[in-house]
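Notes from the pairing session

We agreed to fold both candidates in a single pass and log them together. This is the raw record for the first candidate, unedited. Please don't reformat it; downstream parsing expects exactly this layout.

Candidate A
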Amino acid sequence: MQTRLSRRRMLRISAATAGLALLPAGVRAAVPTVVHWQGRALGAAASLTLNHPNPAEAHRLIERIEAEIRRLERIFSLYLPDSEIAVLNRDGAIDSPSRELVELLYACRAYWEITDGMFDPTVQPLWETYRRHFASRASDAGALERSVAAALPNVGFDGLLVDRNRIAFARPGMGLTLNGIAQGSITDRIVDMIKAAGLTSCLADMGECRALGTAADGSAWRVGIDDPLKSGEVAKIIEIRDRAVATSSPLGFRFEDSGRYNHLLDPLSGLSAESYSSVTVVGRCAEEADALSTAFSLMGPEQAREVVMKMRKIDVFFIDFQGKITEFQTEKS
């Protein structure tokens, strides 16, 4: 069995399945001020739709956005050997960390606390354990269980020491991944840049999706939750204005063909998520939606409901492996 080293995207706009699809809001006349951009962020396809009165200024703004994405990748990317997070994982500590890394780790602590530890970016040692096992094409399930058990003591967000001067692990063997929140954080940063430029309408997808205002024709942006089990089919359509959407699915990245071992890793048991084919969160910002969709993928329905009721207005859609959708909502403003 081969390790699947490419993550399947959660947005149909990127020709993937098992996640979200940007759907047309109806037949529209051509609007010359709609500017589209496609690129990459944190190794995944990214896109941006801007409604701007001046196309030349829109393209200059996009150039600044591209530069900002590259800057943030040098902080958050696991795949750049000199990124801040890569240096932290290699050396066990980093001095004078960037403001962005410190602030995101403070946010991670808040999500870790509200989810009773189910959102935990220190699961990287588990990910590496599974990667090494399946890359070696080993078939000994007992050996894998022993390796996971050996890695578990190195997981725990309470072992990450963070302040504005230094970030360090409390013990050797720990590691950090921000793949469950960084894409959402970058999406929010890009939307903030667009708002600062005076715009009131865009759809940003930097791995997670966030809408600013409405589409060019004044309608809501329409996002579809793809059916994870039926390629190309949509399970539910959501209309959003000034909200963000994120989906997590065990089918998004699999270490082996069955999907039993996937990228959604329980920080307490070391096992992979298996309860839902996908979890979608609609929240106030992409960072929130990203983190909570990750955590909810590892929770039972009642545990997830308890967290939802603690939050300000969010919607959560669970799709099980029979295609049934369960929806939780809170009406808090």
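Candidate B (folded immediately after A)
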Amino acid sequence: MKDVETRIDTGASRMEIARSRGAASGFLLILLGAWGALIPFIGPYFDFAYDPGVAWTWTTARGWLEVLPGVVTVLGGLLLLMSRNRATAMLGGWLAVVAGAWFVVGRMFASPLQLGDFGSPVSNTITGQLAMELAFFSGLGALIIFFGAMALGRVSVRSLRDVRYAQRPVVAEPVAAEPVATAATEPVLERRRHRATDEVVDDEHHRRGWRHMFGGSRRTPVAH
């Protein structure tokens, strides 16, 4: 059985985390950010939009109030989903939180900052207007803030699982010299087998010599 060298990596960085810590939150944030950035352009197909109710129409207000925070949310979700570094994952969580907050309060700064007119909902019913308010701005932003804050809570605390992950055993690979050592022992074994065979042959010749010396050669009697 081969000896396997096992050592503990005690010098691992405190910033190292398992990728699964922010994976679920990151994936949900990517979905929410993509929704926020795309719904103003595809919503008019279903009469679910703000003015102008025309699909794939770019306006300054849509760019600042919906596309920008949606893209930032997607970026934060990707950092959470893919990062194994605590600082990078926390940056992704904070980006998501800020983007979610902008979804909620961004329209308050539209007029002072001259970001454009975000329009009015195309629906004439209170239920439809409420649904669009939640799906486009305040409800969407609240969800993004929730999942971003939850991800920050998970990645900011160094748990026992993180310590075990950082100090996980590292199994050393078998040394490359082992096949050479095995190959080197083969000629030795072969020489030992030849030596044993030569000793048996010499012993047999020795016994025959003693029989010839004391007993003489035995001749087969000839029948007359």
